[in-house]
Amino acid sequence: MSEYNNNGKTVQFQIESVLAKQKLILARRLAPIDFALGPESRLGSIRILHFDIPRKVGDDGSIDTDLFRFQLAEHPDPDLFPIDSVILFHE
Rounded CA gap, 56 and 75, in Å? Predict the structure, then answer.
């Protein structure tokens, strides 16, 4: 997990997919914690420009609200974001 700390709220996510060329990461929130995006918000040590919840439907037909798509300010190094690893969102 990242060592970055801006003294704000942190939320754990599990990496599901890394689209490095598009600067996108899909990750699953591990606990139902509310958070907000601010000017210094980061995923690991990389600043986040935007995030949203993709339209993924679960087996029961409900929207999967724990999967997030993060648009990063720079290309992520896939070695720093291995699939299934846990990373921190810093508010």
Answer: 24
